[in-house]
Amino acid sequence: MTALVLIDTQLGLQEIAYYGTERNNPEAEENCGRLLQFFRENQFPVFHVKHNSTELGSPLHPSKMGNNFHPAVEPMINEPVFEKNVNNAFIGTHLENRLKTQNITDLVIAGLTIEHCISTSVRMASNLGFDVTLVSDATAAFDKIGYDGNPYSAEVIFHSELANLKDEFATIKNTETLLNELEKSF
Questions:
Q1: DSSP secondary-structure letter at 108?
Q2: pLDDT by residue for the chain (186 residues), tens digit each?
């Protein structure tokens, strides 16, 4: 059985100045919404993961509006929400247990950001034995300053993360390809 796991699709991750100077894939949340709509329409399981930062100044702190889900992926009452305060959807949550209890073996993972919670959660899901598909255009990255003091663009960070996850931890597909494949499987 396949489930959709949406990770940290929260308003605060649109606050670019807090995380860097640029973010790629401005359409990531909308693509997450397309995936969510498909999974809902076809009655596939959906799980939401929400980051509650422990840093008071973070846009993802529970006291901030940025902690709220993006409107494109607002959970329905029957869709479980797992709250975390680390960069891994499985640590400190009951996500793994819930997935295994429901005999879910395949995960479609999307959300933000690829260099933090997505990468860590994809690796963990794979290590836990799940077959993972990461949706490339339903995630995004911010630019970073490297250990060497050099700037690395959001695109470089993004593509480096995809390259690191490809094959060993996940199959990488874009939204359109995945939805077409899922549609044909009916």
A1: E
A2: 999 999 999 999 999 999 999 999 999 999 999 999 999 999 999 999 999 999 999 999 999 999 999 999 999 999 999 999 999 999 999 999 999 999 999 999 999 999 999 999 999 999 999 999 999 999 999 999 999 999 999 999 999 999 999 999 999 999 999 999 999 887
What is the C-alpha to C-alpha distance for residues 169 and 163, in angstroms, rounded to an integer?
Answer: 10
Q: Which helix (H) or strand (E) segment is 33 a member of?
A: helix 28-41
For the chain, how are helix, strand and coil distributed in percent, rounded to 5?
40, 20, 40
With contact defined as beta carbons under 8 Å apart, do 165 and 136 qualify? no
Q: Which amino acid is at 146?
A: G
3-state secondary structure of 137: helix
**Structural tokens at position 16:** 């670019």
49 - beta bridge partners?
7, 82
The answer to whether the CB of 136 falls within 8 A of the CB of 121 is no
* pTM check: above 0.85: yes
